[in-house]
Amino acid sequence: MYNIDRLFESVAAKGHVCVGLDTAAEYIPSAERRRAGSDAEAVFAFNQALIDSTIDVAACYKVQNAYYEEMGIAGLSTYAKTLHYIREKGGIVIADIKRGDIADTALRYAKAHFAGEFEADFVTLSPYMGMDSIEPWLTYAESNGKGAFVLMRTSNKGMRDFEYLEVSEKKRVYHVVGDKLAGLAAAHSGKCGYGAFGAVVGCTERDEAAEIRKQYSNLFFLIPGYGAQGGAADDAALLLREGNGGVVNASRSILKAWSEELKVSGGGGGADESAATIEFAAEAARRATITMRDAILAAAKK
Amino acid sequence: MYNIDRLFESVAAKGHVCVGLDTAAEYIPSAERRRAGSDAEAVFAFNQALIDSTIDVAACYKVQNAYYEEMGIAGLSTYAKTLHYIREKGGIVIADIKRGDIADTALRYAKAHFAGEFEADFVTLSPYMGMDSIEPWLTYAESNGKGAFVLMRTSNKGMRDFEYLEVSEKKRVYHVVGDKLAGLAAAHSGKCGYGAFGAVVGCTERDEAAEIRKQYSNLFFLIPGYGAQGGAADDAALLLREGNGGVVNASRSILKAWSEELKVSGGGGGADESAATIEFAAEAARRATITMRDAILAAAKK
After folding, report:
1. In 3-state terms, chain B is what percent helix, strand and coil (to 5)?
2. Is pTM beyond 0.95 here?
3. Residue A140: which residues within 8 A CB-CB, separation 6 or more?
4. Chain A residues lying within 8 Å of B69, measured CB to CB
């Protein structure tokens, strides 16, 4: 069984939210941060509390490698522990690593992230070097059901620099990537109808969304760009198919929901953030996740 | 002072070889591997010996992150220690990480690899997401002289999938990447005339090499593809400029030179590899580095 089938079922049961654990120590209530022995420990405790509070309302989690590498070896221990904790609780985790390398090197990265201490259910990959930087990871799709989301058309402004280049009439670089991925998905297809490997497609370019969804019907999408980057529930819903086929990532709006709630309750004058507890942060994260889940579910039904 | 100026001087003094420390435990003589407490420790001891034996004949080192991540936290400790050891000895180290992410995430990756435990002199970056995945790293070029090599036209077969796509007459995706990098190099230029950030250009496509070198005269090249992938000294020399402007990577041919030497001395019947020492491996690596250095120097003079 491919993990994409598990993810499909998780979306059907719990909605489309992918909780992005891009957890910087400064997102943690300061009293809790001080109480921990180190920032790396504080981040793990915070992640645990947020995972506990959202496990039944989130489709999956995405853990951004950069936020942990920044803290060095101790941070990477927290990274490993976070992946393990999610999987132990029966959750699904995407390691946001955007690796892209070839041949033997790709196989070693695959071993690093699909087995051992850093084992995840899915990874993100960058396609620049070509399909020989993607295909080695498929070994683990066949042996262990592992999956990947390959960068196709991202949600940042810079995506216009290269992804968006036109290579022929109405065909951009990202379409060529998508075509290759659709071929891969056809050859390695889950029972749910989506390929073991999907694509990263941002919800920031509304005009193209419906066309992309139609053109790449067998690709499951990991969808960034929601919230701060400008994508709304209606935009994200255009990238879904029959109520499934994609998860929508949100990071800071969930991780820092506690801070936003305090600002609102403080009447704009700024409540006392220093006294916030980790329990309050976890509850606020749950509320933010449910609000987002319901907004996307409603948009998907339109 | 940008690190690119240091690298330029190092090439002038020591030639063009970049020793690739893609050190897998299985490349180490088996007696030495067994003697170590763990594979991670064996790899560090092996790296140390090879760095000691090549520091005066190699321009720089490239440490491939994947081979260390594969070994988990212990492997990443060896990764950190290897970077530190090279820098402590006055060497120059390129962290081959091929990261590519945007905004705050890019800044956190930059902090991870340009400061703290994993500090390197240069990194490799992947441009797929656009220039907003490259530019955040420049902060450290200005504050600490750090440098990067951005994937432009790589040496693998898959480079034809996307890098090679034609976006207009005679202009491929990799040219568009190169043009952007040339602009960046002009705005952040070292005393040596090359930009703080250079490009990865493989020496496997001989036909295009001279043109690329001419077109991107202010980009310093990190050149893969030498040896096993088919590039010869003459091919690599086409990517140099006035005897400088590039470093040529070799990994396995140097790391496993000890094994090759034993095969030859064993008359094809296979010598006793199990008895090889780390000292012999380090000496063989030095001989392989010198041979490669001299071949490229001779080709560059033609």
Report:
1. 55, 15, 30
2. yes
3. A110, A114, A115, A146
4. 108-109, 112-113, 118
